[in-house]
Amino acid sequence: MNVQTPPNLDKLRNIVQRFGATSFTTAQVASEYDDSPASSETARQFDELLARHATVLGIQPVPGEHSVWQLA
Question: Its domain of life (predicted)?
Answer without folding.
Answer: Bacteria
